[in-house]
What we know:
Layout: H1 6-11, E1 18-23, E2 29-35, H2 38-43, H3 52-59, E3 63-68, H4 72-86, E4 102-105, E5 114-117, E6 126-128, H5 134-147, H6 155-159, H7 166-169, H8 183-197, H9 201-217, H10 221-241, E7 250-258, E8 261-270, E9 273-280, H11 290-301, E10 310-313, H12 320-331, E11 336-338, H13 343-381, E12 389-398, E13 401-411, E14 414-415, E15 421-424, H14 433-449, E16 458-462, H15 465-478, E17 484-489, E18 500-503, H16 504-507, H17 521-550, H18 562-572, H19 575-580, H20 583-587, H21 594-610
Parallel strand pairs: 7-10, 10-11, 12-16, 16-17
Antiparallel strand pairs: 1-2, 1-3, 4-5, 4-6, 7-8, 8-9, 12-13, 13-14, 13-15, 17-18
Amino acid sequence: MSSFDHRTAVSQIPVDPGVYRMLDDAGSVLYVGKAKNLKRRVSSYFGRALNRRLQVMVAQIADIQVTVTRTEGEALLLESDLIKTHRPRYNVLLRDDKSYPFIYLSTQDEFPRLSFYRGARKGSGRYFGPYPSASAVRETLQLLQKLFPVRQCRDSFYRSRTRPCLQYQIKRCTGPCVGLVCAEDYALDVQDSIKFLEGRTDEVIAELGQRMEQAAEALEFERAATLRDQIATLQRIQQRQYVTAEGGDVDIIAAVEEAGTVCVQVFFIRGGRNLGNKAFFPQVPVDADQATVLSAFLAQFYVDKEIPPEVLLNAEPDEAEFLTAALSERAGRRVALKHRLRAERARWVEMAVNNAALALKTRLGSRAGYARRLEALRDLLGLDALPQRMECFDISHTRGELTVASCVVFDDQGPRKSDYRRFNIEGITPGDDYAAMEQALLRRYRRVQAGEVPLPDLLFIDGGKGQLGAVMPVLDELGIDGVKLVGVSKGPDRKAGAEQLWLADGLADGDAAILAGADSPALHLVQQIRDEAHRFAITGHRQRRDKARKTSTLEDIPGIGPKRRQNLLRAFGGLRGLVRAAPDDIARVEGISRALARQIHDALHAESERN
Length: 611
């Protein structure tokens, strides 16, 4: 029992809004919370009956720290940041590090482009969404291309065209790149696309109907037939995708718990259209009830996402009044959290509950299989307990160039993608995988040694005795102890299922490799971890290689700044056209002398010969 004097601590806490942190004897953060009135909220932990989870937590409190904020919205943001930083064991922890995708329309262009977009929405143009997944965006873009042939090609491709591409031939584009459509007609398709994405499908259908009648009266029967087909497609979509005749933006959120695991299901409704749904599985402390889970989820989920005017819930969250005020402040308008629902809206929430229960059932089944593989791995490697954290490293390069090392992390729940890391390897002999592994391990485990990253129970290296021999001195040099080091090498003929596991602590004794067998659950888990490290390394290497290829050779030529580079690329329609140009043609570009033109020509052709 802690000797913490809560009366003295509470007496010094102000009545302002803010965030409180509860710490244990070691200074570790037990819990982070927010409050409109810090004194009242913190004192409530010591003056009322608590559930078992809170009793255990309160008994460990050695100190309480508070940060005063000006508003509830600031408290909401600060609480989310602190939870992500400290990951307190008594908080509900949401693993959701990905930004959501949008559809982007470049309205600033004469002939705007529709495209997939993910990231900060700071530039000009229009953004529609968010969508729950990349596949939902791509499906919508494909649908729009059939309905309203607005271009979706990249600007570099668009500017370099001299004749229409395949999309024009299959009637998925009207050919603005080569002047086959006037700006007025193209603008109509753009406006129809915007109305469709805003959920104003009835308005689009009505306008298309008027245009169809006008075309028929003008004896433009082919045009009228095209408009008729567009109307029929839109009506089918409307029947399939509309969730509410009212339109509007709504999120529907339901939390369901079973066997100590919680699933939160979110349905995204934008402009009256169901854009899809996504399941989340937050890490939840023991005895956390539904109200606690929903409150924590809402606070963390909406801290960096668009907030709709209405959020429909399957239960009332804790601190509903505080959350409503904080979310309204963040959104810049009123946000309503509703849980007492009737008729159609009650059925929407029931739909979310049913989907959450189904996702939870699937998750529990896969988790049971994962737990069995963890137990098998423990037995195979002779561990004292189930591994709680495992890391695996792999190397990827192309003939020694642009080497990238990957580190993937698995815990007792599966992949922990927020902890994945990549390392761009520099300063080694090209193709020296041992040196690359040494550099990656040094950079990673210096952070472990500094306490910035938890120490893993198991460390897998893609390779056999040689790779282990390169890794062991690195760990010794850093004083890293207590990690089980395992090499994973291909078996005879590189056949899957015949992998060999080499234990570092057995090399000195001359122990042979462990052969688990193709049907071993432990080997299946090792293969999953190794393959994930391989995938992550290859993806990083390809991204680095693509970035290097996109870097124009022009940037390395003295005397070629951004303006001259832009003039050259515009004059020849891109780098490919510039490579084909003669020195005399290059010299005609504004700002380019004959001597510089010859230098550009020689540099580009030297690069072509190397490739």
